[in-house]
Amino acid sequence: MIFIGLALLIAVGIALLISADAGTLVGLTQTQTAQLIPLLIILIVFAGGLFSRRRQAGELIGALFLWVGIFAVVGVGYAYRDDLLGVVSRVSGELRPGVAIVDGERGSATFRRGLGGHFEINATINGHETPMIFDTGASAVVLTQADAIAAGIDVSNLRFAVPVSTANGTGMAARTRLATIEVGGIVRQNLTAFVTESGALETSLLGMTFLETLSRYSVTQNSLELQD
């Protein structure tokens, strides 16, 4: 109990330094250090269990170093939490290339290149998740007939009179409008799109009628960034 009391006094002392505007501590801002105070107190209480009964000196010192190491790891992890979240998002993007790495502050969505060499994108059209491929060569958003039906578009009323070139050759498509399309948190409404005849296209395409509404989009060797 004596150890806990002394440690709590140290924590209070740190808090007083912060309130006295004493500057930064071990590289953290005053705000960050203040946020760490509750965590420090919790760790102190747990560490107090080390001294609740008699222990050999070697065991006691080893346990103490263990808790110091745990606190150091937690403190560093907290201080660099934004960077760590970026790493987690990057790894997630590599494992799931169709899922966007969203930066809400910048209004951007980043996608990693898929194993097939394309930028696969999981868009949401009229509330339905639709797998698409980024394609600047497509003059518009182009949907397969199956994806159009899944998104609630009545293809029976469409007129397939627009010739289009696809990977499967030349086919016919019909003009339509999408109530909503969302890509990595970027939402557009009442967007022009085309629906191809059945079998004319294997995967829907994210084309220029969506891309030209963005402030910027850029492609590097392995990543695609869309800026709202």
Give a description of the structure.
This protein is an alpha+beta fold. The protein folds into two domains: 2-79, no CATH class; 96-227, Cathepsin D, subunit A, domain 1, CATH 2.40.70. It has helices at residues 2-19, 30-47, 57-79, 81-95, 145-150, 208-211; strands at residues 101-103, 108-112, 120-125, 128-134, 141-143, 162-166, 169-183, 186-196, 204-206, 216-219, 223-227. The strands form two sheets. Strands 3, 4, 5, 6, 7, 8 and 9 form a seven-stranded mixed β-sheet that branches. The longest helix is centred in the N-terminal third of the chain and has 23 residues, at 57-79.
Biggest sheet overview: 7 strands, mixed
DSSP strand tally: 11
The Rg value, from CA coordinates, equals: 28 Å
Number of domains: 2
Poorly predicted segments: 20-26
Binned, the helix content reads 25-40%
**The top level CATH class name of the largest domain:** Mainly Beta
Question: What's the helix-strand series?
Answer: HHHHEEEEEHEEEEHEE
Instruction: Give the number of helices.
Output: 6
Q: Structural class per helix/strand content?
A: alpha+beta
